[in-house]
Amino acid sequence: MAANKPRTSSFSRNVGVVPTSQVPGLKHGPNGTVFLSSGIADLDKILGGGFCLGSLVIIMEDPDAPHHMLLLRNFMSQGLVHKQPLFYASPAKEPRGFLGTLPNPVSLKDDKSREHDTEQEKTLRIAWQYKKYFEDQNLDSQKDGKVEYCSDFDLRRPLDRHALSGQCIDCVSLQDCPNLATLYDRCSTFLAQIPRFDGNITLAGRISIQSFSAPQCHFSDKEWDMLSFIRSLKSLVRSSNAVAAMTFPPSLVSPTVLKRWQHLADTLLSVRAVPDEDKDLAKLLTGYQDMLGLLNVHKVARINTQVPVILEATTYSMKLHKRRSLVLECLNQAPVDGSSGTSHATSGSCSVSSKTGALDF
Amino acid sequence: MAAEAISRALRDGALEGEHAPALTIKDSIHAPLGAFVFDHILAQLSSNISSSKSQAQGIVLVAFARSPQFYAELLKSKANDAASLKKWLRIVDCYTDPLGWKSQLAESGIVSNRSTQNATTASLCKNARDLDMLFSSIVELGKEVIRETKGRFAVAIDSVSEILRHASISSAASLLSNLRSHDQVACLFWLFHSDLHEMKASSALEYISSMVACVEPISNTTNGKGMNSENLPLIEQNLGRGKFSVRFKRRNGRIRLMSEELHTEQMGINFVPAFEDYVTSQSLVPKVQFSLQLSEKERNDRAKVVLPFEHQGDGKPIQIYDGRRSVSESKTENKETNAEKMHVNEDSGRGEIIYIRDSDDEMPDSDEDPDDDLDI
């Protein structure tokens, strides 16, 4: 948490006293925002804390690979672990079936903490005064009854039954929606249970829409209708304590609509597939063998502030750590990412720090 | 290699809980060999089915572009007899009367109904616009060919381009994806002519399928010039040969690209491995801001740069103009004129800056170390 402390300046609204959240799964962020976890620890770190309540997250799929499902699974599982109501829509006839593929958090009585200690003893002898920094991590996870903000999910094990039962999970098949108005009504009834007031937040919810413009949906050729649905969804989500995550295949919409779609997102991510047995790529990147795919972060949500987020790197490789949990790693390739199109991507970090340095009084 | 990999994937079929593998065969007018590829794959799958090597126990063929008799003949010629064909082959006949016009005319008595008998049981489809009915007839016929309750059947659709004439892309896409997710479908494949439709239809079909096989011309004919004497040999060539490239979406989430050549022959087609030039994946990885490689043009330009040295490394001494009014050929002359100039300019009193090259005194490339003068 100390490492993630956001830079505060006079222009950011500091929430006076930052209370430890009584509500599990929520965290206070800068500028009066509240975060909830995406389910992937690395992604939370990259985005500066997680997904902002009231924001719309859009993930652009690669038609050749199902990596967006991994992101959605972690997102949905995290919500269920924290007992947050969930709304799920997909083009399949039986969306409930997808719930069976959600991962379970790695249980703490597993090898995790023991392994950590023994490894430490073997490889590294840490001076006694520094041990306190390492112990912090263990303490957090071992507190009885305290649930972690972001769980480590084991993708090989399905979610426990007790997490699924007794939960408010609303599933909709996009094929059953003759038009977008019905889908909008379902969303607004779901969000009505988690409105936003000025007081303390007691409950947060998650909306997860998979493959929104898939060709099987009847509304997939009505592009302007889809855009106005997204805009209405965004306004609904803004006035409630929820995060909406939506994936869609960008190759199936026309370029102008795609641009508008991208602009509507508060946080924009995209996943890309990697060719198999490609010798050139194996030479270019270390760790190519373990890579599942690539994740690009195009936009990060900034609510209640005008200061943009400029990331050090925007392309990450998705890998499975110990074959069970999803981790994101920077590419070991070039020090600088020039593909963002703006040359001030590199000088940006310098200018941001100098600005806040000058104005920090 | 690529064609065999496709046949293997279709033969192995679907895993429990997963969607069935689906193949799109795509071609265009420039390389119209898609139908041959379809026939080849159909024949391979049929031989696997009849020898019980495949997960699919039967095949339901939806015939739009060619008649059921054609397929019966085709499969008979590949060493299948009529009796065994009846066991595992069912055909949905959307070729004879897809919109029901002939039966309407027959009913009204204008045209006498010519009955069509064929050896294979072909179920006649009279309304190609109703894809829900097509889906249920495919599933019904499929149930007839499987032997056990847990068995599966394969589905082959002659031409999705024909379906798209009568129905929208979203209903065609939902038909295909419902077939894919049906428990009893082992695999499915279809043919599609990409230049007859918008890009959107093409991308939608590629989105749904797990393997995409494209037939492309080996050499691109000059577009727009039509049939003239220069183009004819190229066009003829494209009717007999093509480039066959396949993109597999693997279970581990990666893409496998394979490519080979195909040649048409009397008894079908033949696949020949071609030299592979993979598209470099440079576009996937973020671009480095500085390029360490030189392009051809840059290399040429670099060779042409005149360096500010006397010797350019190519054996010819070059006189660099260094601001003196007259640059003479020999060095000795320079010295003399220099001395004169000095003298002259002293008298002028105009406040010029005079620079006299003192490197003239040195022989070029002298190996003296200037530090040798120091007495330390």
Automatic annotation (TrEMBL), chain A:
Biased amino acid composition, Polar residues: 352-361
Cell compartments where the protein resides: Cytoplasm; Nucleus
Biased composition (Low complexity): 338-351
Cytoplasm listed as a keyword: yes
Region (Disordered) residue spans: 337-361
Superkingdom classification of source: Eukaryota
PANTHER family: ELONGATOR COMPLEX PROTEIN 4 (PTHR12896:SF1), PAX6 NEIGHBOR PROTEIN PAXNEB (PTHR12896)
Protein name as it appears in the record: Elongator complex protein 4
Native source organism of the sequence: Coffea arabica
Lineage, top ranks: Eukaryota, Viridiplantae, Streptophyta, Embryophyta, Tracheophyta
Gene name of this polypeptide: LOC140010804
TrEMBL record, chain B:
Annotated compartments: Cytoplasm; Nucleus
Gene Ontology MF terms: tRNA binding
Coiled coil: none
Primary residence: cytoplasm
Region named Disordered: 316-376
Pfam families: Elong_Iki1 (PF10483)
Bias (Acidic residues): 359-376
Protein name in UniProt: Elongator complex protein 5
Organism: Coffea arabica
Organismal lineage: Eukaryota, Viridiplantae, Streptophyta, Embryophyta, Tracheophyta
Gene name, Swiss-Prot/TrEMBL: LOC113702335
